[in-house]
User: Which sequence fits this backbone?
């Protein structure tokens, strides 16, 4: 069945009707319970269907053998489980895998699996393109089309599990999920939050809150909202230790400057929320933000904030003039932070030979809207 975003009807409860059928893939347990009640079935069916979809990777109702034949027929008349088409799969020499997934007839997004010795991390997208236009990121240069729906976000996990040949409860190859792909997750909380809940649901993928990370460039009102709605790990794309430089690298800083962002981070970790710290992401750009004085500013900015810092070697892409900091500059920067008592690691670059490294995801974005801070709308429905 071809995917036509225009044919969808998004209801007030955030469920999606596609060609007259309710799409079940993106519904969390509460959403599924509401659906089953609406068709005259008991809410406990939500647990059964969730296991079939997410633990066993089944999208055909006829294969759900613990459901009665009558219920399976009813589901075929009222519901659908859509999954996106894999347009392309690329494998890096280091084992990283990137999938290009069609989400509608005009747009596609990218998801990346990064295998490591003790874990496997899936990096997923939350928007088609991105409106933030961070100057060092390939995604922002693609422009912005629309938010991904619940099903399009969780489908990246579903597809990756199928492609890797694993079933979550039998063989957990994907142990961590990070919302660090295309888009700004906290400008799409309406759909990011339910997807995160599915990732952590024991009847679905069963990931712990420490293994689900949402990364943001600093959407302050949504950081406050995420603490109310979810208990997950939080990563901040900081990239600069002062407002002047951050205004240039991360333009959303003009709307939510460091004077607003830092108090929000202190509040997030208050009362032992999540892992009791946030992750600070800092891309290393040669002679831009990698000097010793920048490290000293960063130390002062972070102060007593419980955090760990990931220094990210810049990954180049076509049309950008930035250059990756030298190894000496990166380690000099790291040493300065460590000497100040901060936890700091240098992220190993993975998948750059297939443009799957941090900042390189581009996908395919059509009908782009203008990138402007005025276009940013924060929706907090969760």
Assistant:
């Amino acid at each position: 069945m071809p995917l036509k975003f225009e044919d969808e009807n998004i209801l007030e409860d955030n469920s999606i009707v596609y060609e007259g059928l309710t799409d079940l893939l993106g519904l969390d347990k509460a959403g599924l319970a509401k659906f089953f009640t609406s068709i005259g079935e008991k809410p406990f069916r939500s647990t059964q269907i969730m296991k079939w979809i997410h633990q066993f990777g089944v999208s055909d109702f006829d294969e759900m053998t613990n459901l009665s034949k009558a219920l399976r027929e009813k589901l075929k008349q009222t519901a659908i489980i859509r999954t996106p088409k894999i347009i392309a799969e690329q494998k890096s020499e280091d084992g990283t895998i990137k999938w290009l997934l069609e989400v509608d007839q005009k747009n596609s997004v990218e998801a990346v699996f990064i295998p490591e010795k003790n874990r496997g991390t899936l990096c997923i997208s939350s928007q088609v393109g991105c409106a933030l236009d961070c100057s060092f990121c390939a995604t922002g240069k693609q422009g912005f089309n629309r938010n991904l729906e619940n099903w399009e976000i969780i489908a990246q996990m579903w597809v990756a599990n199928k492609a890797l040949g694993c079933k979550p409860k039998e063989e957990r190859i994907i142990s961590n999920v990070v919302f660090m792909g295309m888009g700004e997750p906290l400008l799409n909380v309406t759909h990011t939050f339910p997807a995160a809940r599915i990732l952590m649901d024991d009847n679905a993928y069963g990931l712990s809150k420490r293994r689900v990370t949402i990364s943001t460039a600093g959407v302050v009102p949504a950081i406050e909202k995420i603490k109310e709605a979810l208990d997950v790990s939080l990563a901040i794309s900081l990239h600069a230790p002062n407002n002047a430089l951050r205004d240039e690298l991360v333009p959303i800083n003009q709307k939510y400057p460091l004077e607003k962002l830092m108090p929000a981070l202190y509040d997030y970790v208050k009362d032992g929320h999540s892992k009791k710290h946030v992750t600070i992401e800092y891309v290393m750009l040669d002679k831009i933000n990698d000097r010793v004085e920048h490290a000293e500013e960063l130390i002062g900015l972070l102060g007593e904030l419980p955090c760990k810092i990931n220094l990210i070697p810049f990954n180049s892409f076509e049309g950008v003039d930035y250059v990756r900091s030298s190894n000496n500059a990166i380690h000099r920067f790291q040493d300065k932070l460590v000497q100040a008592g901060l936890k700091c690691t240098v992220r190993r670059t993975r998948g750059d030979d297939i443009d799957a490294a941090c900042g390189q995801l581009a996908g395919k974005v059509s009908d782009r809207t203008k990138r402007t801070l005025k276009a940013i709308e924060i929706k907090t429905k969760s």
Q: What stands out?
A: Residues 5-80 form a domain with the DNA polymerase; domain 1 fold (CATH 1.10.150.530).
